[in-house]
C-alpha cells in the first residue's frame, strides 16, 4: 500500500504556470500523473519509471515536466503555458508494475486529486 497526497492545484489564466506536488509514503517503480475533466475520458499526462525513463501525452509535451525527488518522497508536475483545455482534476498515481510504457497506464494506487482550472 502507498499513500499519495497531491497539492498545488489552483486557478490561473491561460499562459500561466503551476507546479503540482505529490507526497508519497514509499516510491514505486512506475509513478505519474493523469487528469480527469467533467464528461471527458481520463487522460494520462506524464509518467516516470524507476529507470528515469519519462513519457508525456502529446497534448502536454513541451509544456509539462515531471520530476521526482526521492529523498523528499515527492513527485512533481511543473506546468507552463497552460491552456483552458488543461482544466481538470489532476491525480498522482503509482504502481509496482514494470510494464508502464504507455502514458495511459492504469495504476494500482491513486491520490485524491487536486483541481486545476485555467481561464481564457
Helix content: under 10%
Overall, the morphology is: globular
Got a strand count?
A: 11
Kindly report how far apart the N and C termini lie: 40 Å
Query: What characterizes the major β-sheet?
Result: 7 strands, mixed
Average pLDDT, to the nearest integer? Answer: 96
What is the helix/strand order?
EEEEEEEEEEE
- Share of residues in strands: over 45%
Radius of gyration: 13 Å
Number of helical runs? Answer: 0
Low-confidence stretches: none
Classification by helices and strands: mainly beta
Descriptive report:
0% of the residues lie in helices and 50% in strands. The protein has no helices and eleven strands. The protein has strands spanning 4-7, 10-13, 18-24, 30-36, 43-49, 54-56, 64-69, 74-79, 88-95, 109-110, 114-119. The termini are far apart. The relative contact order is 0.33. The mean pLDDT is 96.
Entry summary:
The protein has 120 residues and is mostly beta strands. 0% of the residues lie in helices and 50% in strands. The protein contains no helices and 11 strands.
Core attributes:
mainly beta, 4-stranded antiparallel β-sheet, 0% helix, 50% strand
Strand and helix map with partners:
Elements: E1 4-7, E2 10-13, E3 18-24, E4 30-36, E5 43-49, E6 54-56, E7 64-69, E8 74-79, E9 88-95, E10 109-110, E11 114-119
Parallel strand pairs: 2-11
Antiparallel strand pairs: 1-3, 3-8, 4-5, 4-9, 5-6, 7-8, 9-10, 9-11
